[in-house]
């Protein structure tokens, strides 16, 4: 297949190497991510989606079951109380078979005995309720803590293409709101459902033991209630999905709006944004309104059924009293038994009405579970290839670098029942020294061998690109916007996988190397610098648990940031606000350069890192780039040709093809595309000086 045919038939390209197989898997994951993640299109079998989250309950199963066992005691005590009341009424009427009246008079000692039994049962129930609530709530929070941690870790493992497929606000919704929805399931819904079912079962058992005739009233109402619950759940489910989708859209809109608030104000578009928000907000209100119409009808309907049941129980109970009916367990049906049945009728419909609320909550939880599950099940489109190895296995004698192994904030609670501050917890393997590890450094050799790449559903971005960069060299890529320069950077750091061709680092196919080893050897500086809330030091060492102050200061010196940092009251400990808004673009870029140097990389990658800075900062960075060349291989994507004139090799990219290469002087002599770009930029510079 020649190059032109390959261009026209990229969908039919067949290559049996591992890279293409990974890409095919990645494309499927990408499609799943875009199409299924918005929940409404994801049709999982309601409760089946919750099964995969029960594995998080397993480590805490003992505590959880103990908490539920307390529910059995609580429910038994509450169900037995109406029987105690009924027996007391029988005693007042002289009908009790347990305690008889003496000469037709009440014995206050007997009444005190009833009261003592009641108080004892109530006290035990209160104690059980306290520990039941505490154990189940704390256990539920542990479960959700683990789900939230795994979800965040999974999102961090996704490729940039996958992350860019969805607004940041929607990721926030998954990790916060949706995980909170799952929290309700483990801390409240399971408990309420278990307790309500237990109530219904115990009431039915005791009722049948008293009078199977009156018990038939309860039993006849059960299928009616279950049928109504099914109908209401069916109609309410779609509205819950719509609510979750709309809330997620609003979160995404708000996140985007606040990030771009300066642009909104500059173009006087506040009212436009308010209108757009109001449209989304109104749509959400409309869906809530429809949902409330359904639920506001359900609860009164259950209450109506309860009233019908009460009337039937009283009517047939009086008939049984008049006819002297025999109880199931023996004895005559008495007035106290009628009261017991009346209480059980109300007690029976109490859990049923609770289930009306559970319908709302269950739909909310199922929607949250669907969305979290969909995100959890998206496989990273870029991951280690089968059989990928660490750099050390290829180059055991290479120099070593040092890092601190990831530390999970696992801890052991001294007591489940005693609230503790963070410092009171026994942390596991907390020592930084015990977690220091070495990684093998690479030399810095880069080779592209006939590489083709296209984004999903797009035209080829790179077409048969080949080049070689020797270790320690500085190579630059220039070209017009969209030529494919940044794509080359993405392939070097393995954010993407080429559809065809091979990439080699130090002579090893990039697919044969562990991604974590590649990225420990690479520092990348982007055009859009992101600074985290914290301090300048935090943003240079990226919250290193074992920061090296000498190394940090050396990085600051090398990039020429010492002057501006020392001018701040707190120096490297100066506060950095969200996204670094309290620093200029140039200052943020200098911090970014220092961050890259602090990482002590084998490869340094600059992707339009000098595009938006002022002339003074550009001069500082120009000087720092000359010093940085001694650190290792440097790959620069640049729009300003003045920043790459000293590069060892310059590659000119045009429409995904390397059309020229050489150093600055040799390219000027060719009078080609590079020459035209250079003349145009110098002409613009001259015009700016004249103005």
Which regions have little confidence, pLDDT < 50, spanning 5+ residues? 1-27, 33-44, 419-430
Instruction: From the alpha carbons, calculate the radius of gyration and give it in angstroms.
Output: 35 Å
CATH architecture of the largest domain: Up-down Bundle
| Biggest sheet overview | 6 strands, mixed
Can you say what the CATH homologous superfamily of the largest domain is? ABC transporter type 1, transmembrane domain
Approximate shape: elongated
* Strand line-up across the major sheet: 10-13-14-7-15-16
Q: What attributes does this structure have?
A:
691 residues, alpha/beta, ABC transporter transmembrane region fold, Rossmann fold, 2 domains, 6-stranded mixed beta sheet, 4-stranded antiparallel beta sheet, 58% helix
What secondary-structure arrangement, pairings included, does this model have?
Blueprint: H1 3-8, H2 18-36, H3 48-51, H4 61-92, H5 108-157, H6 160-164, H7 168-210, H8 212-259, H9 261-266, H10 270-323, H11 335-376, H12 391-394, E1 400-404, E2 411-412, E3 426-427, E4 436-440, E5 446-454, E6 460-469, E7 474-479, H13 485-492, E8 500-505, E9 508-509, H14 515-520, E10 522-526, E11 534-535, H15 536-541, H16 549-559, H17 562-566, E12 575-576, H18 585-598, E13 603-607, H19 615-628, E14 633-637, E15 649-654, E16 657-662, H20 664-670, H21 673-690
Parallel strand pairs: 7-14, 7-15, 10-13, 13-14
Antiparallel strand pairs: 1-4, 2-3, 5-6, 5-8, 8-9, 11-12, 15-16
Helix pairs in contact: 4-5, 4-7, 4-11, 5-7, 7-8, 7-11, 8-10, 8-11, 10-11, 16-18, 18-19
């Amino acid at each position: 297949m020649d190059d032109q045919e390959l261009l026209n038939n990229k969908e039919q390209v067949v290559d049996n190497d591992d890279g293409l197989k990974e890409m095919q898997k990645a494309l499927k994951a990408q499609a799943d991510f875009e199409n299924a993640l918005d929940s409404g299109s994801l049709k999982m079998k309601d409760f089946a989606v919750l099964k995969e989250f029960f594995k998080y309950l397993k480590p805490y199963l003992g505590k959880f079951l103990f908490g539920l066992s307390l529910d059995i005691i609580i429910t038994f005590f509450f169900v037995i109380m109406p029987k105690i009341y009924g027996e007391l009424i029988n005693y007042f009427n002289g009908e009790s078979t347990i305690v008889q009246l003496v000469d037709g008079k009440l014995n206050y000692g007997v009444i005190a005995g009833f009261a003592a039994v009641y108080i004892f049962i109530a006290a035990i129930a209160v104690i059980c309720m306290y520990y039941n609530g505490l154990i189940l709530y704390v256990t539920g929070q542990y479960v959700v803590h683990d789900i939230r941690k795994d979800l965040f870790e999974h999102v961090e493992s996704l490729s940039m293409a996958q992350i860019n497929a969805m607004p940041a606000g929607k990721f926030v919704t998954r990790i916060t709101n949706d995980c909170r929805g799952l929290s309700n399931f483990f801390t409240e819904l399971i408990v309420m459902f278990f307790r309500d079912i237990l109530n219904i079962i115990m009431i039915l058992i005791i009722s049948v033991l008293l009078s199977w005739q009156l018990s038939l009233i309860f039993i006849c109402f059960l299928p009616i209630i279950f049928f109504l619950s099914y109908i209401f759940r069916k109609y309410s489910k779609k509205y819950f999905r719509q609510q979750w989708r709309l809330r997620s859209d609003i979160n995404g809109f708000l996140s985007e709006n606040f990030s771009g608030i300066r642009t909104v104000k500059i173009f006087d578009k506040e009212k436009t944004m308010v209108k757009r928000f109001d449209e989304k907000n109104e749509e959400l209100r409309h869906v809530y309104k429809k949902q409330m119409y359904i639920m506001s009808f359900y609860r009164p309907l259950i209450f109506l059924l309860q009233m019908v049941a009460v009337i039937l129980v009283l009517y047939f109970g009086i008939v049984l009293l008049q006819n002297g009916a025999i109880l199931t367990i023996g004895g005559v049906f008495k007035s106290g038994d009628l009261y017991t049945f009346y209480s059980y009728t109300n007690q029976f419909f109490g859990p049923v009405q609770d289930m009306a609320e559970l319908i709302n909550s269950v739909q909310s939880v199922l929607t949250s579970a669907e969305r979290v599950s969909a995100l959890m099940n998206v496989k990273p489109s870029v991951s280690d290839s089968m059989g990928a190895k660490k750099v050390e296995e290829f180059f055991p004698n290479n120099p070593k670098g040092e890092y601190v192994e990831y530390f999970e904030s696992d801890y052991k609670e001294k007591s489940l029942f005693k609230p503790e501050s963070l410092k009171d917890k026994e942390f596991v393997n907390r020592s930084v020294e015990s977690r220091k590890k070495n990684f093998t450094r690479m030399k810095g050799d880069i080779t592209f061998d006939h590489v083709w790449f296209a984004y999903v559903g797009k035209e080829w971005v790179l077409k048969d690109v080949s080049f070689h960069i020797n270790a320690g060299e500085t190579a630059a890529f220039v070209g017009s916007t969209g030529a494919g320069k940044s794509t080359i950077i993405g392939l070097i750091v393995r954010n993407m996988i080429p559809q065809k061709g091979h990439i080699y680092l130090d002579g090893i196919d990039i697919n044969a190397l562990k991604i974590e080893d590649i990225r420990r050897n690479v520092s990348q500086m982007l055009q859009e610098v992101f600074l985290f809330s914290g301090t300048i030091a935090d943003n240079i060492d990226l919250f290193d648990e074992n920061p090296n102050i000498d190394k940090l200061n050396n990085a600051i010196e090398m990039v020429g940031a010492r002057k501006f940092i020392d001018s701040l009251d707190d120096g490297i400990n100066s506060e950095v606000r969200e996204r670094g808004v309290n620093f200029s673009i140039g200052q943020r870029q200098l911090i970014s350069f220092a961050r890259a140097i602090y990482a002590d990389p084998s490869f340094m990658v600059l992707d339009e890192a000098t595009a938006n800075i002022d002339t003074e900062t550009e001069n500082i960075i120009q000087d720092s780039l000359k010093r940085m060349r001694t650190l290792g291989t440097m790959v620069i994507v640049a729009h300003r040709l003045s920043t790459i004139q000293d590069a060892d090799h310059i590659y000119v990219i045009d429409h995904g093809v390397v059309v020229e290469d050489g150093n600055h002087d040799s390219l000027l002599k060719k009078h080609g595309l590079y020459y035209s770009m250079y003349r145009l930029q110098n002409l613009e510079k001259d015009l700016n000086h004249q103005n």
